[in-house]
Amino acid sequence: IGFTKSLAKELASRNIRVNAVAPGFIQTDMTKDLPVDKIVERIPLKTLGKPEDIAKTVKFLAVDAAYITGQVIGVDGGLVI
């Protein structure tokens, strides 16, 4: 988080934006063997995310978020609330 903010501040004068995406539990091969029931009960949206959720966030930051820099975007269904 600190590196993202520092780099964003350093590169802003060159019109380079720096953001980070912090995914939660996403349905992938890495999570297929986890106890999904126990995990989902801690997530306010009550489901694991999909890879498309991460992709849409990254696309938004790359294409439509010209005035966003130095941010960490959590894509976790509210897990860290």
What's the layout of helices and strands?
Layout: H1 2-11, E1 20-23, H2 36-40, H3 51-64, E2 72-75
Parallel strand pairs: 1-2
Tell me what the structure shows:
By secondary structure, this protein is α+β, with helices and mostly antiparallel strands. Helices cover about 35% and strands about 10% of the residues. The protein has helices at about 1-10, 35-40, 50-65; strands at about 20-25, 70-75. It has a two-stranded parallel sheet with strand order 1-2. The radius of gyration is 15 Å and the shape is elongated.
Give the gist of this structure.
The protein has 81 residues and is α+β, with helices and mostly antiparallel strands.
Brief descriptors of the model:
81 residues; alpha+beta; two-stranded parallel ribbon; 3 helices; elongated
Strand order of the largest sheet: 1-2
Mean pLDDT: 97
Estimate percent helicity.
Answer: 25-40%
- Name the helix and strand elements from N-terminus to C-terminus, one letter apiece: HEHHE
Distance from N terminus to C terminus (CA atoms, Å) equals: 17 Å
> Structural class from helices and strands?
alpha+beta
